[in-house]
Write a structure and sequence with these properties.
Elements lengths: L4 H4 L3 H15 L14 H15 L8 H8 L6 H17 L4 H12 L2 H4 L3
Length: 119
């Protein structure tokens, strides 16, 4: 059985590094940083490590209902979603993910766009 992207890149240890790096970039973005002004970043990074692991085929799962419910009150716009997606793609590339793997994650994010964008 072929390894998932999650497994081939070292599992939770690598994903945690990717997610931490991603949020370092997010907090530098004029578009994205305001969404996290009052957020417990340690807790968010823990949660997002599981979510990104899920996107990479790892041992976590998130239903569409859960994703929609969590994002419903956040006021995420299309431009913010695009910035987040591009930031994630750049972060994955910088951590050694190949073009095919990055494209797969982009596809997974885009397939959930309607659940995340609320404005």
């Amino acid at each position: 059985m072929p390894q998932s992207i999650f497994e081939s890149h070292g599992g939770f240890v690598t994903v945690r590094k990717v997610v931490s790096s991603f949020y370092d970039r997010v907090l530098e973005s004029e578009v994205l940083a305001p969404h996290f002004a009052h957020t417990n970043m340690k807790r968010l990074i823990d949660h997002q490590t599981k979510f990104v692991s899920f996107l990479l085929g790892g041992p976590a799962s998130f239903s569409d209902d859960h994703i929609e419910r969590v994002h419903a009150r956040l006021g995420i716009t299309q431009p913010a979603f695009e910035e987040m997606k591009l930031t994630m793609m750049e972060t994955l590339e910088d951590h050694g993910f190949n073009d095919s793997e990055v494209a797969q994650v982009e596809h997974e994010l885009l397939s959930r766009q309607a659940l995340i964008v609320t404005v």
